[in-house]
Amino acid sequence: MNKILKALAILSLVSFFILFMGLAVATRGGSSTNGSQGSTSAGSTCIVTVNGYSYDVTKLQNTHSGGNVFVCGTDNTSIFVSQHGTDYKLITKYKLP
What we know:
The chain has helices at 2-27, 77-84, and strands at 41-42, 45-50, 53-56. It is of the alpha+beta class and 97 residues long. The protein has a domain at 29-94: Cytochrome b5-like heme/steroid binding domain (Flavocytochrome B2, Chain A, domain 1), CATH 3.10.120.10. It starts with a helix and ends in a 13-residue tail after the last helix. Mean pLDDT is 74; it is low at 19-42. InterPro entries: Cyt_B5-like_heme/steroid_sf. This is Cytochrome b5 heme-binding domain-containing protein. Residues 1-26 form the signal peptide. Keywords: Signal.
């Protein structure tokens, strides 16, 4: 009986952690420096923020050589910089006005 209670407690904690992390990712965002709303994700559109600017990377999700690494609706600056440094020319064509 004791083992069952411990297993249920662990399962409850893991479930809570997964739920909490999902909510944290879904609600993250911010404002961009160009005055528009920061990162949003609507339907099948994938919009991310990099260095304060919003980019529509929907088409890039399926063609990116590193795979679909985008976390739609969030700031992806650290992901971008860790792989590409500050070579923002790579994503210029995806920048939103």
